[in-house]
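YM 10:42: Gluconokinase sequence, as discussed on the call
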Amino acid sequence: MTRTDGRLLALDLGTSSARALVLSAADASPVPGALARHKITPTYGGDGSAVLELHEYVEGLLGCLDELQQGGHLEAIEAIVLSTQWHSVVALDSHGDALTPVITWADTRSVDLDLGSSFDEQAFHARTGSWLHRLYWTRRIPWLLSETSPASFAGLPDLVIERLTGERVTSVSVASGTGTLNLATGEYDEEALTIAGVKADVLPPIVPTGWTGHLSAEYARRWPGLVGVPVHPPTGDGAASNVGTGAYDSSTAAVTVGTSAAVRVVHPIDNAPELPWDLWRYRVDDKRAVTGMAFSAAGNMHAWLTGVLRLEHDEPTTVQIGESRVIAVPFQAGTRPPATVPGGSGVYFGLSFDDTAETLLAASLQGISLEVDRGLRKLDALFGHELSVVLGGGGIDASAWWRRCLTATFARPTDVCAEPEVGCRGAAAVALGLSPEPGGEHLTPNPADVNRVAALRPRYEQLRDMAVQASAL
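YM 10:58: structure's back
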C-alpha cells in the first residue's frame, strides 16, 4: 500500500452496527483505541418488514464521532471515508423528511411486476447487473408509491452524507446497488426508471469518485478537528471489502464472511466479460466493477448454531474437514437472487443418535463452504482461469477451522487478510487510490481434506437440489 501520512476517519454503516474508527493513512490499519460503535437492532415484522429507525441510526453514528472526539482521536484527520450496506431505501416527503424507516435488503415487501413479453430481462440484467427482484428499487419504489406519497427516494448512505455535508448525493457504487444504474455509463438506466415509475430527478444525483464534500457549519463547530476535511463518496460494503482484502484486480477473488458471505472479483468496467445470469455486477468506482455471488447464511448461521447448541467452543475441532456424514444445506435465510428459495428452508440430512453439536456445526460450515465454492467456480469460468483467493471478514478472522475448510473446499491455496476491518480499509483505498495487500497467513490445502470434500460434493449437490425442489412445494 502506498504510504501517506496522517490519519483517516472511517464510517461503517452496517446493518447490525454503525461505527466510526480512525485508521492510519500509512496502511489503513485501525488506530488502537480509536473505535466507537453504536449497536443497531433491526425491527422485523410478520409482514416481511426488516427496517432500521433512521433518526436513531444517524444519531447513534454522530454519537460515535462524539466519543472519538472526547478521546482526542479527531485530530490530524486527512479524509473521511464511508463503507456502507447496499440496497437500502427511504421514501422522503417534499421537505426531505423521511416517510418510512430505512428499508433494508432483508425486507421482503415489494410489488410483483408484469412487464409483458416484450421485456428482455436478460438484457436488463446485462446492463444493470441486477434482476427484477425485491432487493432492488425497481420493485421497492412502486411498492412505496402505492403505500404513501413520496416526493423522492434515497438510501441510508445518501442521507448520512446529506446530514454531514448538507448535500444529498450518491456514489456510482451505492447507486449500482439500487438496481437502477446503467453499469457502462455510470448513470441511471432509463428502462429501470420507467419500471420503477420515477424520473431521475427524484433520486440522489450521482457524483464522480473524485467528488468531496465538507462538514456543514453545525458539525464543524461540534468537531473542530474535522473542519475542512474532505468527505469522500461512500463505497458499497461488498466492493469495499474486496479492495480491503487486497483483491482488487481480475486475478484474485475475495471470499468475505461476515453476517452473510460473498465471493467477488474486481475488474475494469471497460471490456468487462459478459455477465452470466446467476452472477450480479455492481460498481466499485468510476473505472472498476465487481462481479460475484452472495449467500444469505454465513456468520449468522455460526452465531445461531453456537447459541442454540450451547457450544462451549466456537469451532468443531473434533470433526475432520469433509468427514461428517451429515449434510447441511444452509438455506435458513433462503437464497439471494436470482434463486428464489425462501427463508426457513435450511435442512440437515443423515442425522443419527451418535451425532454431536460439533457434527452439526461442522456440517453447516462445510455446507456454506460448498455454496461459496459454487460461486468461485463460476467466476473461474467467467475470467478464464483459476483465480487466486483471499479470505477476509469477521467470520474468517474468528475461525481457523473454517479457514482450513474453505481452503480445502476450493482445492487451492488461499491468503488470509490480516486486517479484520476490510470494509473500512477498502473504502479508504478506493477514496485515496491505495492498493492494500492481504498481509496474513498463507494456507495450503491439506490433500486428505481436499479428497474428503471432493468425495462429499456429489452427495451435497444431489441433496441441495432436493432442498431447492422441496422449498417450492
